[in-house]
Amino acid sequence: MEISLDKVKSRSDPYQLFLDSIRSPATLRRYKNHLHTFLKLIPNQLYTDTLQKTPKDRELITLAKFFVELARKDMDLASDVIATFIKEDRKRVTLGEISSQTIPNHIKPIKVLLDANRVPIHWKSLHKLLPRREAKSKDRAYTKKEIQKMLEVTNDITDKVIILLFSSGGFRLESWDYFTWKDVIFFKNDDRTYKGAALRIYSGDPESYYTFITPEACKALEIYRESWKTDISVYPKPDDPLIKTVATPMIRRLAQKGVRKRMDKIVSDIGLRPQLPPGVRRHEVQLDHGFRKYFNTMMRRAKVNYLDKEDMMGHKVGLERHYERYQEEDFERFPEYQKAISFLTISDEERLRFENKQKQAEIEEIEKKNLELQDLSQRIDELEYGPEARGSDYFKHMFKARDDPSTEILLTIFQLWFEMRATEDEKRIIWKKIQDAKRNGKTLDISDFGESQGLSWKNLSSK
Fold first, then answer.
1. Tell me, what's the pLDDT at 460?
2. Domain count across the chain
3. Residue whose C-alpha is closest to residue 12's, from 55, 54, 65
4. 331, 346, 361: which is the final residue of a domain?
5. In which domain, by residue range, is 40 found?
6. Same domain assignment for residues 224 and 317
7. What is the mean predicted confidence (pLDDT) over 166-180?
8. Which residues are bridge partners to 194 per DSSP?
């Protein structure tokens, strides 16, 4: 470990400070794109007039350095530039090109850049320029019928895997940039059929978390795995990408851009993305986020625990995450996910098969509990009315009557008569009557025993 001069000097690079301020690779990619879009809108003339120099190119690293220098020299001017950008974005909201929720995401990277470089812009006044956030997004989730149509129009197992993982896992589009085969952990029933699977999202990233997928999606992955082997003669390795491209014999990841392109074609084929009419900028269902909304809707309908559902979607759950002692590796949330499997299963046939299997499992569980209760009842009966219980009771009364020989003799005769003249079932029934009478303070006559194979007044003195 050392503190070198080069490392110290690197802390003076505005763009490097921006990079160091963002921990998540996914967030960094988004912020870089948004920041570059903003910086490219600033005319070079503004830098020439203020700094008496012009950027040598329009690359992000160059423009970031120039904007930070401009902001340090004239913070009011930098604030005016940002304010103008916000106002132009508001016009796009009015035209329906973007939603009001999008503008704060465009501003955050600018704030990170200036905060990282210790430029004290008055952000409170700029935030007042942001439009009111819409109470509810106008786009909707895919319906189950629409997802069924997607599966019907494609014969490609790759597309089927994408659709079923998207709809049953509820993850974001950029997750496809991370998935490997070791991120899928299958759960199986005793008969080796799929129970479901855990799916690791953003593996290796600080924001990594687990969601789950349905048995239907597991089957699709199994078919895809066999297809993989057919293509290149070997099964995928744990570190191989979960989905590969098919345009090259080399194993290359099918990343989010390729997934989006495939989904655009499928959704267009079922008529969900027609040409937009004049003045309309957005489709009714977001291409990839429609699956995430479907997942959220089905989880709510299944009445899955809210915090569990939020965690499976990678949402922040506030202080709950700090206080919980949940171990993701133990997959303790899978039972909650199982409540939603029938809702998340796309194929009607697969859903009926799952529901029948679930009902059969419930019946078997009930039968198992009934046997356990029956066994427990027998054990209690044995402890209270069996030979050992009766022998213990005889001994207790004998001990009390040891100073009264006549009573002791009568007790001995009764024990011999009772134990030798009746069947075990009859003895238990009669003994229960005796114990009940004693507990209730009643006098029990031997005639209350009823007729048995050996107990009656008639044969009391026989043999």
1. 44
2. 3
3. 65
4. 346
5. 5-127
6. yes
7. 94
8. 188
CA pair distance 263, 160, nearest whole angstrom: 10
Whole-Å CA distances, 117 to 5, 36, 49, 393: 19, 17, 22, 89
Q: Give the model's pLDDT for residue 206.
A: 75
Rounded Cα distance between 460 and 463, Å, is 9
Domain contains 364: no
How far apart are the C-alpha atoms of 139 and 132, rounded to whole Å? 18
Q: Which of 23, 345, 329 is nearest to 200 (CA)?
A: 329
Rounded CA-CA distance 252/246 in Å is 8
Full DSSP string of 93-133:
HHTTSS-TTHHHHHHHHHHHHHHHTT----HHHHHTTSPPP
Mean pLDDT of the chain: 83
In sequence order, what are the residues at sequence separation of 6 or more whose Cβ sits closer than 8 angstroms to the Cβ of residue 87? 129
Does 185 share its domain with 323? Answer: yes
> What is the SS3 string spanning 349-416?
HHHHHHHHHHHHHHHHHHHHHHHHHHHHHHHHHHHHHCHHHHHHHHHHHHHHCCCCHHHHHHHHHHHH
- Is the overall model pTM greater than 0.85, yes or no? no
Q: Are residues 121 and 151 in the same domain?
A: no
Q: Token pair for residue 153?
A: 């129009």
Kindly tell me if the per-residue pLDDT of 75 is higher than 70. yes
Strand partners, 212: 198
What's the CA dihedral at 322, 327, 331, 333 to 10 degrees? -30
Instruction: Report helix angle 75-94 to 44-51, nearest 10.
Output: 170
- The model's confidence at residue 463, banded by pLDDT at 50, 70 and 90, is very low
Q: Which two tokens stand for residue 442?
A: 């009643």
Q: How far, in Å, CA of 55 to CA of 338, rounded? A: 57
Query: Is 305 inside a domain boundary?
Result: yes
Same domain assignment for residues 63 and 116: yes
Residue 462, pLDDT > 60, answer no
- pLDDT band for 457, please (50, 70, 90 cuts): very low
Strands (DSSP E) contained in 119-238 are 184-188, 194-201, 209-213
Residues of the chain with pLDDT > 70, as a percent, come to 78
Contact (CB, 8 A) for 428 and 443: no
Query: CATH number for the domain including 316?
Result: 1.10.443.10
- 253-298 pLDDT tens trace: 999 999 999 999 999 999 888 887 776 667 888 889 999 999 999 9
